[in-house]
Design goal:
Strand order of the largest sheet of chain B: 2-1-6
CATH class of the domain at 2-66 and 98-108 in chain B: Alpha Beta
Number of strands of chain B: 6
Radius of gyration of chain B: 17 Å
Helix content of chain A: 25-40%
CATH topology of the domain at 2-66 and 98-108 in chain B: hypothetical protein PF0899 fold
Strand content of chain A: 15-25%
Largest sheet of chain B: 3 strands, mixed
Number of helices of chain B: 2
Number of domains of chain A: 2
Strand order of the largest sheet of chain A: 5-4-6-3-7-8-9
CATH architecture of the domain at 2-66 and 98-108 in chain B: 2-Layer Sandwich
Strand content of chain B: 25-35%
Radius of gyration of chain A: 23 Å
Order of helices and strands of chain A: EHEHEHEHEHEEHHEHHEH
Shape of chain A: globular
Oligomer: heterodimer
Number of strands of chain A: 9
């Protein structure tokens, strides 16, 4: 059976789970000549085989679990944010400072993702914030199933602002919806200003970018305008905040952003889920 | 290396749908804007398929492009790269498609 047009030969069963998406087939054909590797069509099954059309989205299970997490959080009046960056951009330090400064208005809880150790969760706990740690082992990102487990362990109280500190990685976490209300990408001034161009998927997926460690700007020759331009190159209109968790510069704008969920992308089920 | 997790999901998804039927060929669609590297999937797929009903299955990967519409000049263009610039110079494009990560079909005995 030909997978494109459905022409069938005698004796071959054909099971169609979903209609073919002709819009995409145009591109398949368009690009076949670009690649020396396998072609889907035409393909002739052997006489004793059959082709089963699945049209199954590989991330569908994660998306479903993420949606379930979002519903669970909305029902509780808990807002969850997903913080992502390269290792060392200052996620944990910013969370420590944020928890201390907000001082319970709203209460902040943290889901920490790292390959190993409880160090970050211990740092959060030392600030008085609630924290659970996910150790992914060999895993390079958090997924919705891991977060679901963490949510049940954490059992956040209504009105909690829940921060997920994803595994330090600018590649993989961009792909996995956790059930968050917004995604925040951090870049520190000790990194290259072209990070958004080199990791476009992350910065396109982000709802807000934080440029961190700005207290170091006099020492590192970082071109903040070039970094902003790079971010807007991959994500026109991306909100960008500059801050330093050490000096406190820019934190007021960060807290204002946190307190105005209307500026975020994924609409809330309950608009005033928490009241700072 | 999210391709390993993706490959695990692909194998698990097929086993879930096809049961014990021996799978001899798998056709995937991995869009050029999906953030997934097809060569890494090829590498991981064989590892994940080992010991399952997919062991030894041939893997075919289609790589559809995205379609972009420029917010400045209204032009439609094929988008094969996350950093695309419209001939008018704008980078502000509305992109659809090209992000597929999909199991299209399998051939079973």
């Amino acid at each position: 059976m030909c997978a494109t047009c459905g022409c069938s030969e005698e004796g071959h069963a054909r099971i169609v789970d979903m209609d073919a998406d002709h819009g995409h087939q145009h591109h398949e054909h368009h690009h076949h000549h670009d690649h020396g590797h396998e072609h889907s069509d035409p393909h002739e099954p052997t006489h004793d085989s059959r082709v089963v059309r699945l049209e199954k989205d590989v991330l569908e299970k994660n998306a479903r679990l993420a949606e379930r997490n979002r519903g669970w959080l909305d029902a509780r009046g808990v807002v969850m944010l997903n913080l992502m960056s390269a290792p060392g951009a200052g996620k944990t330090t910013l969370l420590e400072r944020t928890i201390r400064d907000l001082a319970g208005h709203p209460p902040v809880a943290v889901i920490e993702g790292d390959q190993a150790t409880l160090r970050d969760a211990e740092r959060i706990r030392a600030t008085g914030g609630r924290a659970v740690q996910i150790n992914t082992g060999s895993g390079c990102h958090l997924d919705a199933a891991m977060v679901a487990q963490a949510l049940h362990a954490l059992d956040p109280a209504p009105g909690t602002l829940l921060m997920v500190e994803n595994v330090g990685n600018l590649v993989c976490p961009a792909l996995f919806d956790l059930g968050e209300r917004a995604r925040i990408a951090l870049v520190s001034v000790t990194e290259g200003e072209d990070k958004p161009l080199k990791y476009p998927y992350m910065f396109r997926a982000a709802d807000c970018m934080l440029l961190t460690k700005t207290d170091l700007l006099p020492h590192v020759g970082f071109d903040r305008d070039a970094c902003r331009a790079a971010a807007r190159r991959v994500h026109p209109g991306l909100p960008i905040l500059e801050l330093s968790a050490t000096s406190g510069d820019g934190l007021d704008a960060w807290y204002a952003w946190l307190r105005h969920p209307a500026a975020w992308t994924v609409p809330p089920a309950t608009p005033e889920a928490y009241a700072p | 290396m999210h391709e390993l997790a993706i490959s695990e999901s692909i194998v698990a998804g097929i086993v879930e749908r096809m049961g014990d039927a021996r799978v001899i060929r798998v056709v995937l669609e991995i869009g050029r804007l999906s953030g997934i590297v097809p060569d890494s999937i090829r590498f991981c797929f064989d590892l994940c398929a080992e010991g399952t009903s997919l062991a030894g299955a041939e893997l075919a990967i289609l790589e559809p492009s995205g379609l972009g519409r420029c917010h400045e000049c209204g032009r439609d263009l094929v988008v094969d790269d996350p950093l695309v610039t419209c001939p008018c110079g704008s980078v502000d494009l509305e992109v659809s498609g090209g992000r597929e990560i999909r199991i299209k079909e399998v051939e079973v005995l």
